[in-house]
Amino acid sequence: MVKQGLRWLLSRLFRVRLNGIDNYHKAGERVLIVANHTSYLDPILLWVFLPDDVTFAINTQIARQWWVRPGLWFSKVFPMDPMQPLSIKALTHYVKEGRKAAIFPEGRITVTGALMKIYEGAGLIADKAGARVLPVRIDGAQYTPVSRLRGVVRQRWFPPISINILPPQAIDLPPESHGHDRRHLAGFLLSDIMSDMVFETGNHRQTLFAALLDARKIHGGGHVLLEDVQRKPLNYNRLIAQILALGEKLAAETEAGETVGLLLPNLNSTVAALFGLQIHGRVPAMLNFSTGVKQMASALTTAQIKTLVTARRFVENAKLEDTVATLATQARILYLEDLAAGIGKQDKLRALATAFTAETWYARQAHRPGADDPAVVLFTSGSEGEPKGVVLSHQNLLANREQLAARLDLNARDTILNALPMFHAFGLTAGTLLPLLNGMYTFLYPSPLHYRIIPEVAYEINATLLFGTNTFLAGYAKHAHPYDFYSVRYVFAGAEKLQADTRKLWADKFGLRILEGYGATETSPILSANTPMFYKEGTVGRFMPGVQWRLEPVAGVEGGGRLHVAGPNIMLGYLKPERPGELQPPASVFGVGWYDTGDIVHVDEEGFVTILGRVKRFAKIGGEMVSLGVIEELAARLWPGHLHAAVTVPDEKKGERIVLASQAKDAHRNALAKEAQRLGYTELYQPKAVRILKELPLLPTGKVDYPTLTAQIRADEVEA
């Protein structure tokens, strides 16, 4: 009677939705129910809405609290002291007898809004009891005043709550694992189950604009979240109004389904143009303005772009007048200044009024896209030929955002400084979309190359999160004051290998550990990342939830393979120069939908990924595969703080030979040979020559431009 009454009351107050009840019945009798812990309501919600009389494992100290005792009269409780191993053994025996028990593996209510650390004991209980694990995600209770997120999220009475029951799983451990190793591995597997649960119950089956509207519901229309160098901060309501107003003007100048080029830096108006095109069924294509007119003209042709949106002020400041004049022979140029001049006072008022009921307006749009429709076109660097267009769907981008949110404790208190351009997948997804859709304040800076200014901006805005490449992060650290990054919680590195000297410099100067990740434009972009809870130096972390991976054997490479991936964040396909406008879905030796990264990696027993090198970054010498990346690491150990790059030149006897290009004036082949011998590498890892260069050619992302460098070295070889 009490349970039924509470169910009726909670259903009406919180509009509770119970999803996946079939999974509960499939779990069987011997079950360990594991749930995230969002608020003091959680055990009540599970007791009221789950069938059967589930036993709750509860901390003995909490069980003594006066406000908990009344609940103990109505439910089955198994008191546990987490500091006593005998408690774990007793609960294991209890479950093993064919009972269902519920436990919160985090051991405490979240104070971040994300998963806290997962205690290994819960995984060990499931393993020893031979029980199936039933993941249950509680979502919505974190916004109530009885959570512990005051000041972290916008709390209110009676938000909607969902209880999501996922399919039961088994914790299968190798029979040879014992003792501490087995307990540790069980904890790892349970952590994966919990983070997978958070990802799977996220809503990535919608459009980016729909997700933006959902974020406004959570954080409030007056929540300030976006600012650029013009220092005019926007809250959700004003951003949505800008999107609607600019979108209407862009729609009048373009056709439904058209791919429209954006040649713009990191600005509030760039975000408005991106979403403004999408809400009317147009596909924005982000042009990389640092690649040169030839590559941009090729991109226009490949994506069949007839209209290009830019800004006069940007064109003048970036000295792109000649470039835009050339592109104007292929596409019609629209300037933001002209579009803004056409937005009158009445237009602005109408857009602001519509913004308050944008959900209704959006639902009625005839050309509104779906989750699987193209959301954006990005372009590869074109360093190995003409750039390819990478078509990413709304689901691709939202899935990657959900994958990150499942592994990291990011919340609306964070402040992101994003200097990575939006034509860069990392800058678009992690630096722009992730914070916009999670209520985080984002400051957009137009260039990552301002090494002296960016640390000052980070200090001024109290940045808590930074994104960058190794090259950029090394530049910031070199010029920054030791206190400039005082407020920073996390620094993320991607797009190129993080060098040991950069990692050490950040740790020594700022006391910050850089979290290295890995991905590709084709994967939206993040595939793996180190996190505060799962970190291993020298690796690029563990795969994101929802990512499937397989290794293709490579002749001559031991302990690794060529990485292929599949999952909801994998691109819709390529647009290639030889077949303009025609989408070519990804496919590899493992089938359609799989993407061949072209990287050779090693994955250890805990799931940490080590990049051994690109397939193209291996030299074949006398039939043996030699990683050029290893030679660069050897050089970095000897001469830290300088750029080094290993390339190959033809060799009549052995097919190829290795040449190291270095900016270190004292770099010498003999020193490198001794270091290679000391670390146990064969003579194959000793370059035949070392070339000292004042500057190494770089791509706009900060990576070494290997094709240009190789051509330069080979030309010098011919002249010599």
Automatic annotation (TrEMBL):
SMART domains in alphabetical order: PlsC
Molecular functions per Gene Ontology: acyltransferase activity; ligase activity
Cited PROSITE patterns: AMP_BINDING
Keyword Flavoprotein: no
Residues in the signal sequence: none
Pfam families: Acyltransferase, AMP-binding
Swiss-Prot/TrEMBL keywords: Acyltransferase, Ligase, Transferase
InterPro entries registered for this protein in UniProt: AMP-bd_C_sf, AMP-binding_CS, AMP-dep_synth/lig_dom, ANL_N_sf, ATP-dep_AMP-bd_enzyme, Plipid/glycerol_acylTrfase
Keyword check for Ligase: yes
UniProt domain Phospholipid/glycerol acyltransferase: residue ranges: 31-141
Protein's name in the database: Acyl-[acyl-carrier-protein]-phospholipid O-acyltransferase / long-chain-fatty-acid--[acyl-carrier-protein] ligase
Organism of origin: Methylomagnum ishizawai
